[in-house]
Write a structure and sequence with these properties.
The chain is of the alpha/beta class. The protein folds into two domains: 181 residues, 3-Layer(aba) Sandwich (Beta-carbonic Anhydrase, Chain A); 124 residues, 60s Ribosomal Protein L30, Chain: A, CATH 3.30.1330. It has a six-stranded mixed sheet. A hairpin with a 4-residue loop joins strand 10 and strand 11. The longest helix has 24 residues. It is globular and about 60 Å long. The chain starts with 8 loop residues before the first helix and ends in a 6-residue tail after the last strand.
Length: 361
Amino acid sequence: MDIAEAASIADFVMELNRDRSAAYMAAESREARKEYEEKHSTLVLVFQCMDGRVDLSQITGVPPSSLMSFKNIGGVFDLGWGLLGRIVIDRMNSAISHNRKVLILATYHYAKGHSGRGCAGHNHDTDAAYRAACRVRIQCAHLFPGDDVYAVTAGIETDGDELQLHSCNDDVRLDVGALANSSETDIAHKLKDLYPDMGPALRRDLLPLVLGNRQHMQSMQGRVREDGALVHRESIVAVGTGYDWLQMPNKAIIIGPYAVRWQMAVVIAGRIALKNLQEGRIPADKGVLLMISAPFRIVGVAGVERRFAEERTRVLVEESLDILQKQLPELTPYLSVLTTVLDRETWLLRELNRIPALAID
C-alpha cells in the first residue's frame, strides 16, 4: 500500500510498521542477521542528514539493524551534545567490551545533476556539507584514538545512489561507480591503499558496503528515474529515535533530537514538507504527518523503560508542535500527529495518540 491509497498517512505508517516488524521477526530474517553479524562483527555508526533520500542501508543492501544511524539536519553533529555523546560512548564501550571493532561513517550528500537537489541543510552548498562531515570525522578520530575505532568521511550522490569514500586525510576519494569492472580482491586492495592505517578486520567489514553499493548501482542501470524520485517528496516529519524500520526512499524526514536546538531542524523539515505540498509532489488530501517515537526494551523493572519512552514522546510532541505553530503556522491546517513508542526487540510500534489535521489548537 502506498500513502495515496491509505485512509491517512498514520494508517499507512502503522500498516507498514506491522509488515516490517513481521518481516524482521521472521525466522529467515533472524538467521540472515545472525549470519551477517557472525561474518561482520564491526559496529557501524552512521552520521547522516535527515533528508529522506539519504539511506545508506538502502543503497548498500546492508541490513538496517547492522547499521546504527544518527540523523540530523545537514549531517551536522557534535559529540559534545549530551544525549548524542552518551549514546555513542555507551554503544562503543559495549561493542569493544565484546571484542568488536567500531567503524564510524560521517556522511554528506549532494546531487551531481543539479546543485539545487543538494543538501538543503547547507543551502545546497556541497563544500559546506562536506566540511561538516569532515568535522564529525575529525572529532571522532580525536575522541576515540587507537586501533578499535576508525572514522571515515563518506559522500552519497543521491541522483545515482553512489557511495564515495574519502581517504584518512580527506585528500583522495574512491567512487564506487568507478569500480564496476574491479574484482573483489582489487577493491580490497584499493581500500587498503585508501586506509593504510585501518586494521584488516575493519577493512573486511567496510568491504560489504562497497560491494553492496556497487550491486545496487548495477541494478539501477537502465532504469529511468522520474524527476520526482530525485527531489524531495517526503510527507512524514519523524522526530525521535528507533526509526530503522522506516528506512525507505523519500517518504520521511527523520530528526534525531540530539542537538541543543533540535527544534529548528523540525521547522526546516516542516518547510520542506510544506513545499512538497505546495508544488504538488505529495497528495494534498493526505497533508503532512508529524510522527513522534521513542524506543524501549522490556528489561529491568517491569514497564519502566516503556513509561520513560512515553514521557519522552510527550516532551517531543509538545516541543515539536510548539515550534511549528510559532515558526510555520501555514503548515498547521495540513498537519496531523501520530505519537508512538517502539519495542526495540520486535520493531513493533505501540500507538499512543493521534491528532487529525485541523484538530491541532
